[in-house]
Structure formats: structure tokens, C-alpha cells
Specification:
The protein has 252 residues and is an alpha+beta fold. The chain is built from five helices and 15 strands. Strands 1, 2, 4 and 5 form a four-stranded antiparallel sheet that branches. Helix 1 (2-15) runs antiparallel to helix 2 and helix 3 (105-123) packs antiparallel against helix 4 (132-144). The protein starts with a helix and ends in a 6-residue tail after the last helix. The model has no long low-confidence stretch (mean pLDDT 98). It binds 2-amino-4-trifluoromethylsulfanyl-butyric acid (MF3) and cobalt (II) ion (2 copies). The site of one cobalt (II) ion (CO) has 5 residues, from loops.
Length: 252
């Protein structure tokens, strides 16, 4: 799991310089596909429940599962690139929301506070606590900043399966009573919105968008529960966190 997580982080580093005005998300798909194969891995999204591409690219009002296409990104867009690699029998899953060129200060705030919200959720990972502590922390942070939290898509157990049965809501769900135990691996991947978090699905059956068209951001780590808390798996060998090196201030 450490190797798969590290590979996902490395792929985010490889794709990052390509995220510029004028690039198509199809091109980002190509870069992620090649980088995944080059590491001896398989891009987990490709043909997963008939998903057609090797990465998810979610632009502006797209909450998640955006399918790469031929539209060039333009200055002022924000795009989440969600990379999952299947390597040596297990999956590593991580995403970053990138600014494209110069972005609106309010979009910058959305990106930064979504990153902080993810970290607040990860900080709530402690053995013997229920998983609903994670969503409670995320929701509290979002509320303080006047941001919405998407409820329809949640974090998930991950390992030999891309999505195991374990569910990690990003809002406070008292029913999510599964107790965190040392050795568990799952993702924390909140999606926050500038407006109403209600969502709609395009008729491609994948692309999830905000109903009101407001912008939305997401970050994702795959994590391991350890005795004294949490270990981030989707980081570089030296512990570098892609989001912090590429998008947000480490202090964010
Ligand atoms: N990587 C996404 C997640 O975080 C799942 C994408 S499923 C796909 O769970 F089929 F759209 F790729
Ligand atoms: Co995930
Ligand atoms: Co993902």
C-alpha cells in the first residue's frame, strides 16, 4: 500500500506541469496513463464499472468523476485530477485540485479551505474512534468557512479492492459507527462547494455536478490507521505531500 500510494503521489507530480491553459483533459489522461504504465501499474479507473478513461478530471462545477475530453482548459478554471494506480495487487488513490492560470480569489479560498478540511478529517483518524469523527471534523471546518459539503460521494476502504465496503462520510453521520483500527486503509476525499452542495448526474452516468452550477473542489489521500493516529500513504518517498508542493501553502 505504501508503494501504490507513493506511485499515485508521483503521478500527480508528473501531471502537474501539464495543467495549464490550452491543455485538454484528454491530454492529462494520456499523461496519467503513460506515467501509470511506466511504473508497472494499471490505471484503476480504466474500465472500472465501464468508466472509459484512466483518470478523473473534474472542472469547475464538476464535483467528481469528470471524464477527460477534448475541451481545452482555460485561464481561471479549477480542475481536480484524481489518480488511482493498481500496483502489485493493491490500489493507491489520491487527488488534487489545481488552479489553471490566474484564478478568482474566491476559488483560491475554496481550494485552500477544502485542503484544510481534508486535513481536519485526517487529524480525526485515531484508533478506537468511530469513522464518523472524520466527517464531523470536515463538516465543522466547512461550516466555519461558509462552504457546503457534498454528501452523495464518500471516502472508502481501499486495498486489494478499489472500493471496499467501508464507508467514510465527509459530513457528520451518526450512523457511521465503524471503529477505526490499526492497519485499516481508507481514503479521505471531501468535496466542498461555494454554494449549495446538492448534486446532479449527467446522462453519461458519471459526471457529478453541482445543481446550482457553483464551483467545487476536492482533495484526496489514501491513509493507514496506525497506533498513534495516521500515516499518509499518498506522499513521496521523503514525505512530500503533492498538494502542498504543487497548490497550497504547507501552513494551509
Ligand atoms: N478515484 C475515485 C475515488 O476517489 C473513483 C473514480 S471511479 C472512476 O474513489 F471509475 F470514475 F474512475
Ligand atoms: Co477514492
Ligand atoms: Co480518487
Amino acid at each position: 500500500m505504501r508503494r501504490a500510494g507513493r506511485a499515485a503521489a508521483e503521478i500527480l507530480f508528473e501531471v502537474a506541469p501539464h495543467v495549464t491553459p490550452g491543455v485538454t483533459t484528454d491530454r492529462l489522461d494520456e499523461v496519467v496513463h503513460e506515467a501509470t504504465i511506466a511504473r508497472g501499474g494499471y490505471p484503476s479507473p480504466l474500465n472500472y464499472r465501464s468508466y472509459p478513461k484512466s483518470v478523473c478530471t473534474s472542472v469547475n462545477e464538476v464535483i467528481c468523476h469528470g471524464i477527460p475530453d477534448s475541451r481545452p482548459l482555460v485561464d481561471g478554471d479549477i480542475v481536480n485530477v484524481d489518480v488511482t494506480i493498481y500496483l502489485d495487487g493493491v490500489h493507491g488513490d489520491s487527488s488534487v485540485t489545481f488552479p489553471v492560470g490566474e484564478i478568482d480569489p474566491n476559488d483560491r479560498r475554496l481550494i485552500e479551505q477544502t485542503y484544510v478540511a481534508m486535513n481536519e478529517g485526517i487529524s480525526a483518524v485515531v484508533p478506537d474512534r468511530p469513522v464518523n469523527s472524520i466527517g464531523r471534523a470536515i463538516e465543522r471546518h466547512a461550516r466555519r468557512h461558509g462552504l457546503g459539503v457534498v454528501r452523495e460521494f464518500i471516502g472508502h476502504g481501499i486495498g486489494t479492492e478499489f472500493h471496499s465496503g467501508l464507508q467514510i462520510p465527509h459530513y457528520h453521520d451518526p450512523r457511521a459507527r465503524t471503529i477505526m483500527e490499526t492497519g485499516m486503509t481508507f481514503t479521505v476525499e471531501p468535496m466542498l462547494t461555494l454554494g449549495d452542495p446538492a448534486c446532479a448526474l449527467w446522462d453519461d452516468d458519471w459526471t457529478a455536478v453541482t445543481l446550482d452550477g457553483c464551483r467545487t473542489a476536492q482533495f484526496e489521500h489514501t491513509i493507514l490507521v496506525v497506533d498513534d493516529g495516521v500515516e499518509l500513504l499518498t506522499v513521496l518517498d521523503d514525505g512530500t505531500v503533492p498538494a502542498e508542493a504543487l497548490v497550497v501553502e504547507a501552513s494551509a
